[in-house]
Amino acid sequence: MSRTRVISPEELAAQRPYTNRIREYYAFLLPEHPPLAFVRTYGCQQNVSDSEHIKGMLAAMGFGFTEQADEADLILFNTCAVREHAEDRVFGNVGALKNLKRRKPHLMIVLCGCMVQQEHIAQKFYKSYPFVNLIFGTHVLYRFPELLCGVIEEQKRRVEIPSEDGNIAEGIPVVRDGSFKAWLPIMNGCNNFCTYCIVPYVRGRERSRDPEAVIAEAKELIAAGYKEITLLGQNVNSYGKGEAHGVNFPELLRRINALEGDFLIRFMTSHPRDATKELFDTIAACEKVSRHFHLPFQSGSNRILKEMNRHYTREQYLDLIAYARSVVPDISFTSDVIVGFPGETREDFEQTLSLIEEVGFVSLFTFIFSPREGTPAARMDDPVSAEEKVKWFQEMTALQESLSAKRTAAMVGETKKALLETAVGDFIEARLPDNVIVRVKGDAAMIGKHALVRITEAKSWILLGEIKQIL
Ligand code: SF4
User: Fold this and answer.
1) Which residues contact 301 (CB under 8 A, 6 or more apart)?
2) What SS3 state is found at 125?
3) Average pLDDT, stretch 453-464?
């Protein structure tokens, strides 16, 4: 029986009067110009997508947006709890708003996201940062208008972090950051409880959106000309598990792949425990699905994988990679890896190094273990010194850099389809199907287009190329 509670259209519509009252309040307070909001996002793509929905609600309230905090009438930080230094930065950045609030008493300061979903953190902000007006958690994002309206009308600060876990709100307005790449969240939460990870405690249990709602949103994005759609979830491979609709992730991919249009489907984040042979067979059969696959392995040691509660072994991970390459020959892999997990020995670490060599990843997201209060790993014995962990970290990144450099050097002379993404001075950074960036000469008018790019040179940190044809 699914635990997912879909917020009803009536519940969502009940937010509209609050939205209108906030619009009237600012029309009265600021008759000269519409109110401006400054939204800062910390952390992962799921948070970026949540911020796009927060901006959608703010736009409905009549807000415009600014990239300058001191121009804003409302400042919102969408926070992240994954690593200690991310949290330290937020404490520092919020503290820095104290003087701005003194200069602009009507300024609203709002905190939301995973960091403040933790009760002890929310209370710390409430007690020690009296200029923060509203703090709300990850499960009540859809009630933002109501919460903000309450703070404004009652002139009272508020903390709202109920653990009403397991809901999905369809139909929240969205203001997207990009015009050719879009995030499409398909699920939320995680049931895996890796021992180092705070996500299951702040994002709740897994719940998947209805496939029809996902496909309807994909159709809208395709019709709006988006070239790349990234399906989002903490563990996209377990999409649909336990849901009445019975559509699993490979089936969802097949249905989106069947939609008319010239677009690429990407997805993140995957988990080796739920990545199946059916999934790789589906990628092989679906021409619109990216051949780049992000598959976090975290450690090469079975002993550490067990301590991490990852539910797969090194051998199973390598079998998955081998199977994927047998059915999708041009597939490329990136991954996440943690160094210095409590109790990790030199031997365990060398298992990680040998796995990196064996797979040959395009690139790696590398982290030194960061204890998260409330997770089992934070209570584990951790004898290895921070200095030693840094040495291991440097050794591992040096290995990956040399493997990446060898891989990119072999690409010189090849011509590939790339998406022209970002203007950097006189150059444009384009993304290849395997997620590698190539820099080409071009102008901003080309951004968002696909092009055939010939790779002319491989530098240690980037590829250089030339546009052969705009597609
Ligand atoms: S799969 Fe593990 S690391 Fe990823 S979000 Fe879930 S608990 Fe965290």
Assistant:
1) 314, 344, 347, 348, 349, 351, 352
2) helix
3) 88
The CB of 252 under 6 Å from ligand 1? The reply is no
| Strand (E) or helix (H) holding 176 | none
Q: pLDDT tens across 131-140, in order?
A: 999 999 999 9
258 DSSP assignment: T
For the CA of 197, the nearest atom of ligand 1? 8
Q: Which amino acid appears at position 14 of this protein?
A: A
Residues 6 or more apart whose Cβ sits within 8 Å of residue 425: none
235 lines ligand 1 (CB under 6 A): yes
Helix, strand, coil proportions of the chain in percent (round to 5)?
40, 25, 35
Q: Whose CA is nearest to atom 1 of ligand 1?
A: 192
Alpha carbon of 407 to ligand 1 centroid (Å)? 29
Question: Residue 197 has what pLDDT?
Answer: 96
To the question of pTM greater than 0.85 for the whole model, the response is yes
Any idea how long the chain is?
A: 471
User: DSSP letters of 399-455?
Assistant: HHHHHHHHHHHTTTT-EEEEEEEEEETTEEEEE-TTS-EEEEE--GGGTT-EEEEEE
Distance 337 CA to ligand 1 centre (A): 12
The closest alpha carbon to 87, from 43, 127, 46, belongs to 43
